[in-house]
Amino acid sequence: MKIGVVIHDMTPAAGTERITATLCNSFAARGHQVTIVSCFKEFPAVSYALSPEIEVVFMNPCKNESSGKIRHIMSYLGQIRKIRCFLRHADFDLILGQSFPINVILFFTGLCHKAVACEHTFYNYYYYPIRLVRNFLYRFFKRIVVLTEKDKMKFQRYYLNVSVIPNMNLFSCEMKVNLGNKRIISVGRLVKSKGFDLLINAVKDIFIQY
Question: Lowest-confidence range among 58-72, 106-120, 179-193?
Answer without folding.
Answer: 58-72
